[in-house]
Write a structure and sequence with these properties.
Blueprint lengths: L1 H22 L8 H25 L6 H44 L77 H31 L3 E8 L11 E5 L10 H12 L5 E5 L7 H8 L11 E4 L9 H10 L3 E2 L3 E7 L2 E7 L16 H5 L8 E4 L6 H4 L6 E4 L10 H5 L8 E5 L2 E5 L17 E8 L2
Parallel strand pairs: 1-12, 2-3, 3-4, 4-5, 7-8, 8-9, 9-11
Antiparallel strand pairs: 2-12, 6-7, 10-11
Helix pairs in contact: 1-2, 1-3, 2-3, 3-4, 5-6
Length: 461
């Protein structure tokens, strides 16, 4: 845990350093505004770990400002990284244009000796006599130069006003010698434009995400055929919900809305597949109380998620059981309906391994020594559990955990860890359905992955 916290703090610090560079240093000149921006960046960097720690210790007032900034920080980072390429190209174009312009100004004009200049002017600047008015090239008489001004002995300075010879030139004579590669004012304008675009876009996306996350869950219906499902059980419906995440920003009203939504479905089974809470029973017991009102024909069931292990899993198992949900801890339940039988199994979350709290996931206990002719549906919080479940011939696994990615493009990172991020997929012959979840974790923001309750309808061949 200490290693994870240290890594998280380091990443947060690096992100804020990058944001400070792009949003403050590159867009301001040295002075009080740059100093103020630096102080703001430091305070916001400290706000992130303070929120993570504070909300777990009851300082819920930190949740809104801290988690909103976390979402805004994420989208600022993504947008500024995307803008790096076009901004770099624009800087290159400006640099080349400026170099071309300064090169044209600084290059001396060459006058051809044969009369390319103004009539009557020689290459050295002396005025010549017009043709036909003075001595010709063959005339024995030549005009005498005016007497030169006396020069002091030992003086190395040329006579005043003498321009009879070429004068040495240096960098100081080049009009562009002390200019930068390109106009600093244009570079500042470009940086400010990128910062304004990123800021406005990030704010707009975050606002949209807040509205989506705080709104009612979307109801999705999915039909999944199971080869072993008896004909009489065709159409068996399982209301599936995960990741309700009662906590600092979600309370009793959130639970009541979800329960009312599920009850309207008149489902045969209800499956709550983990991450119900982000806090202790003492803090959130009242918020979870409406779960006792869940209705279904053949029962409501629950399996633990990773957040239960952060919130006092043993207390929550007892509390959920008290509210009328059967907690499947590495066990299965026969569901006899419409003249057929289905095995409904559940395993503890994979997070349980090594925690010393409850028992780790035990697939053999939940799935071993059963009638292989029966279809089996497994409730497991994380989709990755299907890699083990497939070895026991599981027909369908119902999961959550991923939140559907919650905030695009974060879903691309989730895909690196989980075999299915959202919707129906397959792992080694086992069908896996992953619901987006009805709540959120951390930022109250959902972009590209709306909150969801799913009605799974099982179909016979």
């Amino acid at each position: 845990m200490a290693t994870f916290v240290g890594f998280a703090v380091l990443v947060t610090a690096l992100i804020h350093l990058y944001l400070w560079k792009r949003l403050v240093r590159d867009t301001t000149r040295p002075g009080r505004w740059r100093k103020a921006g630096g102080v703001a960046a430091l305070l916001l960097a400290l706000l992130v770990p303070a929120t993570m720690v504070g909300t777990r210790n009851g300082s819920y007032w930190l949740a809104w400002p801290g988690y909103l900034w976390l979402a805004l920080m994420f989208y600022l980072l993504v947008l500024l990284l995307v803008l790096e390429v076009p901004v770099a190209v624009a800087k290159l174009v400006l640099r080349r244009r400026e170099r071309a312009a300064t090169g044209a100004v600084g290059e001396p004009a060459l006058v051809p000796a044969g009369g390319g200049g103004r009539a009557g002017t020689t290459a050295t600047g002396h005025v010549a006599e017009p043709a036909g008015t003075g001595p010709t090239a063959t005339s024995p008489v030549a005009l005498a130069d005016p007497p030169a001004a006396p020069v002091e002995t030992g003086s190395t300075e040329p006579p005043a006003g003498d321009d009879s010879g070429p004068r040495a030139t240096g960098p100081q004579d080049d009009p562009a010698g002390d200019r930068p590669d390109h106009d600093p004012s244009r570079r500042l304008l470009l940086a400010r434009g990128a910062a304004i675009f990123a800021g406005l876009t990030a704010a707009g996306v975050t606002g949209y995400g807040v509205r989506t996350a705080m709104g009612p869950p979307r109801l999705d219906r999915v039909r999944i055929p199971l080869a072993k499902l008896p004909r009489g059980m065709d159409g068996l419906r399982i209301a599936t919900v995960s990741d309700i995440h009662l906590g600092p920003l979600r309370g009793r009203a959130h639970t009541e809305r979800i329960v009312a939504m599920i009850n309207r479905l008149d489902a045969d089974l209800v499956a709550v597949v983990g991450d119900l809470v982000d806090g202790s029973v003492a803090e959130l017991g009242a918020a979870a109380e409406p779960l006792r009102d869940l209705r279904s024909r053949y029962g409501s069931f629950f399996v633990t998620g990773n957040h239960e292990y952060y919130s006092g899993v043993e207390e929550w198992v007892r509390e959920v059981d008290r509210l009328g949900l059967r907690v499947l801890q590495n066990e299965r339940q026969e569901i006899r309906a419409r003249g057929g039988v289905l095995d409904l199994a559940g395993v503890n979350d994979v997070t349980a391994a090594g925690t010393g709290l409850a028992a780790p996931a035990d697939y053999a206990a939940a799935l071993g020594d059963r009638d292989p002719s029966r279809p089996v549906v497994l409730l497991a919080h994380q989709p990755v559990a299907a890699q083990e479940a497939a070895k026991f011939g599981v027909d369908l696994q119902l999961s959550g955990h991923t939140h559907g990615g919650q905030m695009v493009p974060f879903n691309l990172l989730v895909k690196l860890q989980q075999p299915v991020v959202s919707g129906l997929g397959e792992v080694d012959g086992t069908k896996v359905y992953v619901t987006n979840g009805a709540g959120f974790w951390g930022p109250p923001v959902r972009v590209g992955a709306p909150p969801q309750v799913t009605l799974v309808e099982l179909r016979a061949p």
